[in-house]
């Protein structure tokens, strides 16, 4: 299970996450951290919780969303690469 906080998400992206959640659709998630070189890749994952529950700081155009992503261990990769 991955907990991901997204900042300044557009309303269209939130609607996409809600559609993925309601349809129980599978997707691929990749995260790259420039500071430490950590890359998280998950395949065939689903959203565990409704993305609308974690929304905060709503404004006219952007909002913050917290996603809980569920993935099987065989579909998850966590690697660190050297950062120059």
Task: Name its key features.
84 residues; mainly beta; 5-stranded antiparallel β-sheet; 1 helix; 5 strands; 14% helix; flat
Radius of gyration: 14 Å
Globular, elongated, flat, extended or rod-shaped: what is the shape? Answer: flat
The end-to-end distance, rounded to whole angstroms, is: 30 Å
Q: Mind summarizing the main beta sheet?
A: 5 strands, antiparallel
The fraction of residues assigned to DSSP E strands is over 45%
Helix and strand content put the structural class at mainly beta
How many runs of DSSP E, i.e. beta strands? 5
Contiguous low-pLDDT stretches (5 residues minimum) are none
Average pLDDT confidence is 85
- Counting H and I runs of at least 4 residues, what is the number of helices? 1
Helix and strand sequence = EHEEEE
User: What share of the residues lie within helices?
Assistant: 10-25%
Task: Summarize the structure in words.
- With 84 residues, this protein is mainly beta.
- The chain has one helix and five strands.
- Strands 1, 2, 3, 4 and 5 form a five-stranded antiparallel sheet that branches.
- The longest helix is centred in the N-terminal third of the chain and has 12 residues, at 11-22.
- The model has no long low-confidence stretch (mean pLDDT 85).
